Amino acid sequence: MTEQGAWRLALPLALAQAAFFLAPLLLLAATSFATDENLGSLSLAAWADVLGDAFHLQAVLNTLRLGAVTVLATLLLAVPLALLHLVAGPGLRRLILLAAILPLLTSVVVRTFAWIVILGREGVINSALLSTGAIAAPIPLLQTEHGLVLALTQIEMPLMLLPLIAALRRIDPALLDASSALGASLARTLRKVVLPMALPGLLAGCTLVFASASTAFISQSVIGGGRLAYLPMLVWQQAMVVFNWPLAAALALTLMGSVLTVAAALSMLGRRAAHA
Amino acid sequence: MTTLSRRTLMGAALGTLGAAGLPFRAAQAAGSMTAAVYPGGWDEALRAVLAPALKQAHGVDVAFEPLFAVDQIAKARAARGVAPFDVFVLDPGPRVSGMDLKLFEPFDPARLSNRARLPAGYSDEVGAGVAAQVVGIAYNPKKVARPAGWRDLFKPEFAKHLGLTGFGTTFGTISLIEMAKSVGGSEADMEPLFTELRKILSLVPAVAQPAAMPGLFQQGQIDIMYTNTYTVTLLKSRGVDIEFAVPETGAAAFGTTMHIAKGSRNIDAAYQYIDTMISTPVQAALAAPPYSFVPVNTEVKPGADVPMKSIDDLRSFVTHDWTKINPQRPRWIDRFNREMAK
Amino acid sequence: MARPLQNSAHMLDRTDTPAALAPAAPAGHRLDMDGIRVRYGQATAVDGVTLSVEPGEILALLGPSGCGKTTLLRTVAGFIRPEAGRVLVDGAPIGHLPPGKRGVGIVFQSYALFPHMSAAENVAYGLEARGRPKAEVIRRVEAALAAVRMEGFAARRPRALSGGQQQRVALARALAIEPAILLLDEPFAALDRALRLDLQLEIKRIQRRFGVTAVLVTHDQDEAMSMADRMAVMRGGRVEQVDAPATVYDSPATPFVAGFVGTSNRLHGRVEAREGADYRVRLDVGASVILASPRGFAVGERVLLCARPEHLALRDATAETPESWPARLRISLPLGPALVHDVEAGATELKLHEARHGQPPAPGPVRVALLPTARPALFPAGDDA
Question: Can you supply one Gene Ontology CC term for this chain's record (chain B) (predicted)?
Answer without folding.
Answer: outer membrane-bounded periplasmic space
